[in-house]
Amino acid sequence: MLTTAPRLRIRRPSPTTAEFTVTTLPPRTLPLRLLWLLLLVLRISLSLVALLILYARWVQERSSFGGATAQLPSSSSSPPPPPLLSLDRLVFALDAFQSTPAGTLLARIAASVSLPVLLPVAAAVFYALSLRVHKEESLLVLRGLGVQTSESPATYLAGAATRFIPTEKIQDILVNEAFLGFEVRYYLVVVVEGEENVVVVFPGLLPRRKIVETVWRGVRECLYEGRGEDRVDKSGG
Amino acid sequence: MVEHDGLMRVFWPTDIRKSDRTGVVVGWRNSTLDVFVVTILEDVDVRPSVPNFSPSKSPSLASSQSGLMANTSTRHLQAHNVEFHLRSGTFFRSSPHSPSRIYELCGHSSMHVLGVSNAATQDAIDPSWVCAKTSTYSRYPRISCAKASSIQLILYDRPHPKGMQYISLNPIALALGDKGTLPEDVASSEDDSEEAKQEKAMKENRRKLVEKLKQHSIVRRVASARDKALPKIVNQVNWSWELEQALQQNVGRLGPRPKRGLSVSERVVESATTMRNYVLVQLWTLFSVYLFPIVQKAFVLVLLFHRMVAEIFLIILEFRAKPGYAALKDISATAQQTEIRLQQFCYWPMQYVTLRQRKANWASVTTSHPDYIRFYNSLWLVANDVIIGMAVGSYIIEHKDWVADQIRDLLRTYTVEALQRGISWLMGWPAGLKLNGELAAFLGDLFLWVIDYWSSCIETLSPMLPHIIWFIGFSSFAGASMPIAMFSDLLSVLTLHIYSFYLASARIYHWQLTILRSLFHLFRGKKHNVLRNRIDSCDYDLDQLLVGTILFTLLFFLLPTVMVFYLNFAIARMIIISLKAGFDTLLSCLNHFPLFALMLRLKDPSRLPGGIHFELRDTHYPTSPDANDNLLDETPTSIIYLKNIPLPFRDMFHQYFQMAHRIRKHYLSPRVLLCLVTGQFVPPINRKNLYSLQYSMLPARRATVWEMWRAVNTEIDIPQKKPFQMPNIPQLQNGGKRPTGFGRTRS
User: Fold this and answer.
1) Which ipTM value was assigned to this complex?
2) What are the extents of the domains in chain A?
3) Considering only residues 626 to 645 of chain B, which have any Cβ-Cβ distance to chain A shorter than 8 Å?
4) pTM for this structure?
5) Partner B, chain A 180-219, Cβ-Cβ below 8 Å
6) Which of B2, B151, B213 sits opposite A228 (nearest CB)?
7) What is the full DSSP assignment across B612-645?
8) pLDDT tens for each residue of B142-180
9) Domain A7-25+135-223, what architecture?
10) Which of A201, A218, A228 has its CA nearest to residue A15?
């Protein structure tokens, strides 16, 4: 529902510049947008719950560490709330939340799990909540400059990993086939001069042959066609 | 030429001044349709007064248009005027450094006029000229050119050379790259020849594959001038800021000087500053002529003396009785640590001189930036080391008795008592295993006796321990790495008995295994043919077979007893090795952690370039109310943003990853496990591999004393800058730039 089979999106503002993006993001429709919103709310609330559990545990640890002195001010009459938009206010609100039924429930959960288990689990939860739903990989072709591959990272926290290959270094661009499990996949490779490894375009998604062929033709046209001195060759790869 | 596919490429700085005024676009023309814009010189004119000098910022359409119309005829003239001045180098006449360096790095003999901005008509201009249209409203300029059928507009951020920012195609190298194989390591590189052979074979395979791939390429495309221009363009981007400053400062030289003289208040300010500057210059000369050279000479002499002492120590540390024998620094961690510090000390003056030469050139020359990072990284690490060392040292010295007691306790508990307990446990049937009691008692008694002797030796030495601890604490004022290295050495000295037990038991175990193997062959009626290195059948006599079989049975039943003793000491030895590995890791962190690079990465990522990347921007112009829109025919334009990739954290720790990989490959390989199981000596990892990290920041060959003396004494001709920043005189009110003839630069 949230992802589709890899599909191709082409941006081509001028004939010599093109960006081919293969993405698993389906076309935007109203239900999908609503679903996205729901997912976002879910992510935020879940991470909030995880944070609150961690905070509750921290408060418990602190009170067991600091001893009875920490207990005294809380038992006395409630002090006036600190001014809005300050760090103290945040702490105040958190402490107020601790006394609500939901807060006590979270505190009980936090107390029941031992610390060496709680911390890795919390880290895993945060990582899982920051994972991207869809993948996006693109190839930017600039005549006279080169090609640039980029992959969207696994989480929302990191930036896209890009690799730029100048035209001088491009030895060839071709479509190759390889076995993957029990199927044959076609994939686009850039052969870089003076390097041992070829660069695979769209390495994570490995789209279908039709898309790969379209991209290959587009790249050829964008980079070389009409340059005058070399003919367009029919076969490659 | 290749260029006539109608693609025009324009590099355009993002921070260029956006205004509606006319101007001349100046930059580099890499080929006919490949231009690199540095700046726009606005209001360059031959005539003293023009209508568009109006200070009002609001772009009143009618007035600017009439101004444009009036200027059309002169614009052509003024562009040629600019071209003439660019060729004759007027702009760089007052620059502190020679402009030839610019031309050399940017690949042209002079800058070019690339076109005009905000021109009213396109009649009078050259067809290959760029017509740019900028306004304060639109984010991107609109480019058109008569010859171009499509346009790539590449926006770039100017790196700030004074802040040592720059871009580069390849990631910045934090380690020194000029490592050849050190001559001393040639002899020791043979022991892991098997790994090396495998690696070589794999490389050969890959090379063949790459060759094959080359044959698959059908068309060999010749790179056009535009393709080849990329390295040049990177340099031009790096130079762009300084060039822009020079051009904008000196733009006033093109026109006539303003007719108006200085006002009275300006004159008063000028004479007052002249007086102040005169006094300050006199004081400075007094200092720099009489006092400074003496101090400098004394400092250099002290430095030279230290360098000579360091040289003597280094010679002692690196002395080898024979090539291939171990030097002192190979045996002891302390010696190695001392050697690294001395080498660093020898390298610093050379580095410092290199860095000072940087000041004698344009700031945009980026070749010495990695040197700068390396130099300050090592300085910072040493300073950190000393600070931590002082804390540790004062603690150790204050509590030296307590520390000595602790160490004595630890030694007694773990290297004597635990070992004794373990041996006695093995002597009576351990874990229900029925070992051979007599052999176990013999071996156990042997080891226990040696342990007793050893512990008595330690006891006699123990009154010395506080003094040793005090010495270690004192040495830590030279850095926290020193006590760590010393503790590492102390550990290997105080566990010498475990090492010898391990060697002895391994030897016995290995012999027994070898005998068992050959007797097993005999048992089967075969034997190992040494000449052909194979198993041949052999007819044994009956008595030979009988004795052999009896011996085989005997040895086979004794094997478990020997094996448990061997395993006991092998495990103890492994624990010590891993402890020492921990110390080594700590040392390498203290010596070579890329702290400075990490801080730079946080503070200013563009100082650590890791390559470039491009971003395709959406092309939709805001509908501007400008009436001149229809004059520009719509050429398909793509807007691309050139960005710098900051060096990824992975690359900063590349050396560490490499070292971890090597260690893992060496110690977790099946060969080593086999050695451990069969009781053979586990070959230690090649020191060159292990300490490649330690030496990656130092040159392969250190500079000699004489070279240092020469380097320190050569005068660097740093251009005589104006000694003081002149006070800023307010800009003239007539809108134009003030001509800067009197050194009153830096607006």
Assistant:
1) 0.80
2) 7-25+135-223, 32-129
3) 636-640, 645
4) 0.77
5) 191, 196, 198
6) B2
7) EEEEEEP--------GGGGGS----EEEEEEEEE
8) 888 888 888 889 999 999 888 888 898 888 888 776 544
9) Roll (2.30)
10) A218
